[in-house]
């Protein structure tokens, strides 16, 4: 008896969708990509032809309302993530969404709560969590290789935009040039923040840090012109956790190095692990380890069980890592159990961390974590000024 395949509809046919999402799903024999939605008709037709997708529409609502579709994959621009995800969850679909679901962590948490209510699973595009080397490292941590975790150092750094002439998307074209806007720490810092929380495995209690705008004028992709772009293209943060643990995060668009430029290090009472997700010498990932009585780091071979079927470290990282992500999501959905890693709840935690980092920078002070927004909202609602209190809490 043949098991029915998981039926997936991808919304968005941009570069990341065609480079990672669609081929990642099609790599899994348990999955069928049955439909594609995209408002750009030229991009829609090209992607549908390239991947052999018979159903191609310009209105994503057609797919959300189709009872035969099991999963909605949201690979659109950021401004549509929340709207599409909420509609899909409300329709009883499992949802994979690129990050962020919403720049406000409370809205991401609301989406997670709706998913729990509807009995569907969610997953964020935390691509690097699903790198085989990162998954293997987490296995080593959980089985006691490093002992008690002490410190984590996370980096997301590459030189894609060190040249001001390289086009960069400006999220808010109306942003005030006098106020540095969040960019690197949200768009590129989120995946390493996710790994930090996952590996450190303790509640975060406070953060402090700063943002910088190193390149004040850039080629803006949406306008094709050089103009002022006051964004954080470099950040450094320190975080404190319960269980006496510490972490640091650095993200940047302008640090020399190959894309994606992820490095995660964790040090404990018995040993240490360093994972690099950087395209170098024909491979996309390495893991090195050391022990307290043998402090020279040595490279380990990543067991095949942490790869998608047939996967190797010489593959292009967007295809390899995303294949693992969608394989994991398909397994979670088909298993019927409650396990669901990297979901919207985790997305809310990561987004709240980003919001706390920003608050620390704006106030030039340590910021307690978790943020006290819910309490402010409740108190404000009782006094009849909930919206004002919410804005004050977020400032």
From TrEMBL:
Q: Which GO terms label this protein's molecular function in UniProt?
A: nucleotide binding; oxidoreductase activity
The Gfo/Idh/MocA-like oxidoreductase N-terminal domain, residue ranges: 6-125
Q: Which residues form the GFO/IDH/MocA-like oxidoreductase domain?
A: 135-273
UniProt-listed Pfam families: GFO_IDH_MocA, GFO_IDH_MocA_C3
Q: From the record, what ranges are coiled-coil?
A: none
Kindly provide the name given to this protein in its UniProt entry: Gfo/Idh/MocA family oxidoreductase
Record key words, sorted:
NAD, Oxidoreductase
- Which Gene3D superfamilies did the record assign? Dihydrodipicolinate Reductase, domain 2, NAD(P)-binding Rossmann-like Domain
Reply yes or no: does the keyword Oxidoreductase apply. Answer: yes
Does Kinase show up as a keyword for this record?
no
């Amino acid at each position: 008896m043949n098991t029915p395949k998981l039926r997936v509809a991808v919304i968005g046919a941009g570069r990341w969708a065609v480079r990672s999402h669609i081929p990642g799903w099609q790599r899994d024999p348990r999955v069928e990509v049955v439909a594609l939605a995209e408002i750009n008709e030229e991009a829609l037709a090209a992607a549908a032809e390239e991947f052999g997708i018979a159903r191609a529409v310009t209105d994503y609502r057609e797919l959300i309302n189709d009872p035969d579709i099991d999963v909605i994959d949201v690979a659109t621009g950021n401004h549509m993530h929340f709207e599409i995800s909420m509609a899909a969850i409300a329709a009883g679909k499992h949802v994979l969404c690129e990050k962020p679901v919403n720049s406000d962590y409370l809205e991401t948490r609301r989406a997670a709560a709706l998913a729990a209510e509807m009995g569907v699973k969610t997953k964020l595009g935390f691509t690097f969590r699903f790198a085989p080397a990162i998954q293997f490292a987490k296995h080593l941590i959980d089985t006691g290789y490093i002992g008690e975790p002490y410190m984590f150092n996370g980096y997301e750094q590459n030189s894609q935009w060190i040249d001001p002439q390289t086009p960069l998307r400006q999220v808010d074209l109306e942003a005030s040039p006098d106020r540095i806007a969040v960019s690197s720490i949200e768009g590129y810092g989120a995946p390493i923040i996710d790994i930090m929380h996952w590996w450190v495995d303790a509640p975060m209690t406070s953060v402090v840090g700063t943002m910088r705008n190193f390149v004040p004028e850039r080629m803006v992709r949406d306008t094709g012109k050089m103009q002022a772009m006051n964004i954080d293209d470099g950040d450094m943060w320190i975080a404190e956790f319960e269980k006496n643990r510490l972490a640091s995060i650095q993200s940047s668009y302008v640090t020399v190095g190959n894309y994606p430029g992820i490095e995660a290090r964790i040090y404990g009472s018995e040993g240490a692990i360093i994972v690099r997700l950087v395209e170098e010498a024909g491979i996309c990932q390495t893991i090195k380890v050391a022990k307290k009585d043998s402090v020279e780091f040595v490279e380990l071979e990543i067991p095949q069980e942490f790869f998608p079927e047939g996967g190797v470290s010489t593959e292009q990282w967007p295809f390899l890592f995303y294949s693992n992500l969608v394989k994991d999501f398909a397994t979670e959905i088909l298993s019927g159990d409650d396990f669901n890693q990297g979901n919207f709840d985790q997305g809310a935690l990561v987004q709240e961390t980003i919001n706390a980092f920003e608050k620390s920078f704006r106030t030039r002070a340590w910021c307690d974590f978790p943020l006290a927004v819910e309490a402010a909202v409740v108190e404000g609602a009782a006094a009849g000024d909930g919206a004002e209190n919410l804005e004050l809490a977020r400032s």
